[in-house]
Batch of 2 targets.
Target 1
Amino acid sequence: TTPGIPNWENAPNYAGLEFKDPLLEARKWVPLLRGKERANVVVIAMHMGLEEDLRTGELNPGQVPNENEAIAIARQVPGVDLIFMGHTHRDVPSVVINGVQLIQADYWGRHLARVDLYLENEDSRWRIAARSARTIAVDDKVLADAELLKIGEPYDRETQAWLSHPIGESAAELTAADATFRDTAILDLIQRVQMEAGKADVSMVASFNEKARIAKGPVTVRDIAGLYIYENTLVVLEVTGQQLKEALEHSAKYFRPYQPGKTTRDLVDEKIPSYNFDIAEGVTYQLNISKPVGQRIENLQFRGKALSPGQKLRLATNNYRVNGGGGYVMYKGGPVVYRSSQEIRELIIDWVERHKTIPTEPTNNWKIVP
């Protein structure tokens, strides 16, 4: 698995585990498999993906060291035939690098990766004569196994009942479709919950699911589960105004250099997932995409006044960010002033159950210019 885990996971969750460099381990074990064990085919299954843009050779942004090493292993470790990848949430039907077949089946069971190897016997050893690779979408055309459905049915029934449980109301439809381009009430709900639960001055949130939607009318647990899809927990740090600005500048890398005539959607850097574009609440600011990276955050204010670099703030975020996930290294080592044992999703559900009504107007505290 990826050795990047200690960079974003809470330490108690990997206590006793040692994460070694995958490239060095592959160099150690593949020759052993080919030589002493006389393996005819060497297949690596890894929770890592492609670390660079194959068109340009540029490293994909936001990675921690050695987080993804599929390409390095394919290029630098002789004797590997096939690599099944994961981690990066990408559908990679078939890529061949240095004679090595690589494939990745998206995420959350949305695809199945299939590789067919055709072997021939030559001098009492089997060798690969041909191969094919593809990913198969798991859609309505794929029939479920009847026996497995029967085993899981009571658990599914209980889960569906919980997901369908109404917990509040919304006076308008809320969506996250444009949440990376403008302030939205649906993300402001998460911001509000994080700030209240953590007694924070500022909150940072990303859009995890652009298809998230809360319909006008009753709000269910399912709606909140679709909005906050990860099992992150709430952490509040003491940060300075300078650290907050650095975090927002890092987030602003989500947009490529400005080109007149291009829309903000056209300028999104496809190598950066939307879940690494953090948006702040509790401050006001403008994101000027016509400025160079590192100089894009303008008019950053806290409570109506320009935020000074030395201003101390209580910042609410999640455990993934605090541990450096998404390249937010400016948080590493920051003083933790509050840590929740509940997942943020649970905090949102509890908030809606208590307040019953979800605010439907965004605070409009940030915007993209020009």
Target 2
Amino acid sequence: MIRHAIVAGGGIAGHSAALALLQAGIAVTVLEARPDDNDLGSFLRLNPNGLDALNAIDVLDPVVDASFPIRHVDRRALDGQVLVHRPLTDPLPGRNLGARFITWANLARVLRDESTRRGATVRHRAPVLGAEATRNSVHALLADDDPIEGDVLIGADGTRSTIRTVIDPAAPAPDYCGSRTIYGHTPRPPTHTPPAPAQLRSYGGPKAWLAHIDDPDTGHTYWFTNIKTSELLPDPGPTTEDWRIELLQRWNDDDIPAGIIKMATRIRASDDRALHHLPRWHTDRLVVIGDAAHAAPPSTEQGGSMAIEDAAVLGRCLRDLPLHLALARFEQERRERVETIIAIATGHHTTTTGPEWSYHHHIEWTQRIVP
């Protein structure tokens, strides 16, 4: 019987896992390396399948309260001509979940607050440096404290996962995709910028593209773009002003994206990485989820949603099956789906269907899993 789970990583995957485990009747300790006031990260789109997974772990309502809807995808020429106008709707009849925009920090905060409120023990500034498993338990190894004992350890520790290499020292690291995604926040966009409330709007130019969405309540503009480069970001990375100078070289002064970039108060970037295939997802008492198992580049538009799906499916498996069967069943349920999504986004798999196929995914929490 699984009584206590340890979760390494307190981001979206980690706290989603905590919520699923608590709902399954399993006590949880979440170990997070970062401080509790961390606001790193950018923003993301939660597609219908991600919202469905949030509903499965009973946290949809607070996430909806902290987000706003994305009703259309709109692509325009620089002169304003509408080239594409596509609604973002839920393909499953009667579910009516659509898509929503939320910042990474707000989503992580909602999930953390809910998992704490429901009984999870959450420790910050507690990086997991390794793990040791015995026949009857597993110990998470910490830098400045005694090991923490549990029945299972879940690695939700991201692209640079420690638990991934504990499971398999020869595990591949995510591949660099040859590009980086740049995110910006413009609280007061120029007055000549056509507003795009609840609408993901992109502009294409001869040298670059930029997509943005406006918060319908505050009017703040959130935007992103992508550039190809063979060079990885330095540490520390460029400042907001560095990025502003570089990006403005790709636009004419009177282009709408140039105005948005000029008024930005925060610009940051991340290298795009993908983990197409991880040979081993688990051992007898350790398992990885989210980016630790299948890092996805932003072009999938599914990284956060897949992590939440992982958490809900793992919770059901641990609720209904003995541990040695539960982790294998979790991998069986998840591997093909996530690897296909990543392969399509990175050009390793071709398809004639649009992204809507991935939106159909549904998790029925009350349905029991049988061996």
